[in-house]
Amino acid sequence: MRSGRISDHGFLADGRSAALVDRTGSINWWCPSRFDGPAVFGRLLDDRAGHWSIGPEGGHTVERSYLEDTLVLRTVFTTPDGVLAVTDALALEPGARGHDIGLRSPRALGRVVEGLHGEVPVRVHYRPRFEYGQVSPYLIDSGGVVDARAGGCRLSLRTDVPMECGRGDATARITVRAGETCRFTLGYAPIYDGGEPALPDADRLVADAVAGWRSWAGLHEYRGLHPGAVRRSAMVVQGMTYQPSGAIVAAATTSLPERLGGDRNYDYRFVWLRDFSLTLQALWLAACPDEADRQFSWVTRAMGRIDDGRVPIMYGVEGERDLSEHTLDHLVGYAGSRPVNVGNDAWKQRQTDVLGEILDAAWLMRHYLDPMSPDVRHLLHALADQAVRDWRRPDSGMWEARDAERHYVSSKVQCWTALDRAVRFGDRIGDPADVARWAVARDAVRAAVLTRGWNDRLGAYTGAFDSDELDASVLIMPLVGFLPAGHPRMRSTMDVVERELSRDGLLRRWDGDPAGFVICSFWLVGCLAQAGELDRADRLFGQLAARVNDLGLYAEQIDAATGEQLGNFPQAFSHIGLINAAGCLTEAAERARDTADRHRQPVPTGAGRTEGVRA
Question: Where is this region: Disordered (predicted)?
Answer without folding.
Answer: 592-615
